[in-house]
Amino acid sequence: MPNESILCLSYFDSIIGPNILYCTTPLVANEHPDLGRILEFQEEEGTFIFAYRKYQTINHIFYIESEIARGGKEVLMITYMIRAAYYKDEITDIYNYLLSKSKELEDFAAELKTHKELTKLIHNQKEGSLKKNPLKMASKRFKKQFLDIFNKYYMNISPKINVAAPILGKGDLKKVYIFGPRNSGKTTLLKNLEVIQFLHYKENEAKRNLVNKVYDFIIDNIEILTYECIDDEYEGTQKKFYDYCMDNAEAFILIFNATDKTSVNDTIDMFQLVLNRCLDKGEYMPIMIIGNKFHDKEEISSDFIYKNFDINELEKCGMPIQFFSINVLSEDEKLINALRWLIKQLI
User: Fold this and answer.
1) Exposure string (b/e) for 19-36, b if CB count within 10 Å is 16 or more?
2) Segment 87-108, tens digit of pLDDT
3) Which of 167-181, 238-252, 273-287 has the lowest mean pLDDT?
4) Is 57 in contact with 108 (CB distance < 8 Å)?
5) Which stretch of 119-128, 160-169, 216-225, 313-322 has the lowest confidence by average pLDDT?
6) CB atoms inside a 10 Å sphere around CB 50
7) pTM of the model
């Protein structure tokens, strides 16, 4: 199975806290969801969906009676996660697909409850690296039994489809780049777009039409290029990276703090760099400018933005450019409309 389809079993250790007992793929911080935090803040048995950036998960929390556990029971969690953008159209609704696996997670948990050695393994008193990788301390007999069960359910839960190949090799793949000064909301924008993408599938009428496919493609290929990358060591390695970003760009998103004039001015400087590069290449690429609104703070007027970015003049020259005033943390519908504008420019 590919790394885009992952099954994990985690539990709560009385000494080190939440811990992973076994996972088909090592989890990476900030790339995969933090299963420890999910387990730490969930107490009731049951199944629930949790979306994290590009991975969508279904989780099943259950208890195993144990004489050696604090409170007389162990708390464990089975998590299945899928990176939906890599799969072909056979999965037309990821949300419903994950929900359909609830019964299999329950059956998996019921089968694990019959293996008494599991609770003893969880309470093994060894410390250090072995404590964080408890399956290494299990007997050969139990390890084989456990892995046989684990792999059986992993095969049952995972989609019976092929992973879609990237459109181009990684080095040649065009990107949509997000530029922005510090604290402008670049990371918030990216994370919120990915969450919106997942929640969008919950609507029955949301089909995998052309717009949604392009939407998926954009979400999965957005990269954040910070202003520091352009500014620091500009004549050295960062300049090469900047040139590479420009050459492999298909569109740009510039975001600034709409309540901070310094943030606007920094973004105008960035915008000029992007514009110059477009002119050097002899082509106009779509540029979406987002003024990120913050609650209870006065915004800079749109007239100021249009004037200082020369938006009206550039539009007359044929530049595909648009300004949006959005709170990227909360105004989901406005964010979707802005992204639709960008999609239209690309297709």
Assistant:
1) bbbbbbeebeeeebbebb
2) 544 455 677 788 899 999 999 9
3) 167-181
4) no
5) 160-169
6) 17
7) 0.54
Length reported for the chain:
347
CB 259 within 8 A of CB 173: no
Q: How far is the CA of 53 from the CAs of 83, 116, 192, 289, in angstroms?
A: 9, 36, 8, 22
Which among 95, 108, 100, 30 has a CA at the least distance from the CA of 64?
A: 108
CA distances from 121 to 6, 160, 225 (A): 23, 33, 45
What is the number of alpha carbons within 13 Å of residue 188 lying toward its C-beta?
20
DSSP secondary structure code for residue 64 in this structure: E
Residue 257, φ and ψ in degrees, nearest 5: -80, 110
Look up residue 23 and give its two tokens. 């996972």
256 in Cβ contact with 287 (< 8 Å): no
